[in-house]
Amino acid sequence: MAWRIGRAVALCRAKNEIDLVAETIIDASGGPAMAKLLFKGKIVAVERKTIKGHVYGEVVIRGSEETEFAGSSLKIPFKNENLVATRLSDAGEEIVVATVPDLICVCDSANGEAIGTPEYKYGLLVTVLGITGSDKWTAIPRGIEIGGPRAFGLDLDYIPLGVFTNPRSVIDEYWNQNAV
């Protein structure tokens, strides 16, 4: 799947269609049943600290005015990786939109590049995507026990973002047997 996502971003750049990168990544990840646009906006706050080799912190993203996310924020606490995405309305309502073991991916809206937690910085325009976690994590209780929200000290139950489907093998799709 990493190859497919990288290819999707590269194709958007080549066609000068970065504004379509979220939709293209969603399609490359298996479509809307498996991946979703969670948020678009600007990073307005970042806190981080390193404890025993782990980077802990939180990023807050304010919704872009020209999008459906205007007037709301997204809060993402992290421990090396993003743990939960919670949408906050101006009225104070909190809605959890994704948790581990599903992937919460923050991308630079200007170029489609993935942004790791150490690269979060104030003012960066970002797109946040959720991608359904592998069934190796979600299909059995032990997977949720060691990779779900409670494993990271969060008082949340795991609610699947979508339905996992195995991606088609890149080799099966692109290998040309006649070329060998």
TrEMBL record:
Pfam families in the cross-refs: S-Me-THD_C (PF20906)
InterPro entries, sorted: S-Me-THD-like_C, S-Me-THD_C_sf
Gene3D superfamilies noted in UniProt: CV3147-like
TM regions (residue ranges): none
Limits of the S-Me-THD-like C-terminal domain: 2-161
Protein name: S-Me-THD-like C-terminal domain-containing protein
Organism of this sequence: Fistulina hepatica ATCC 64428
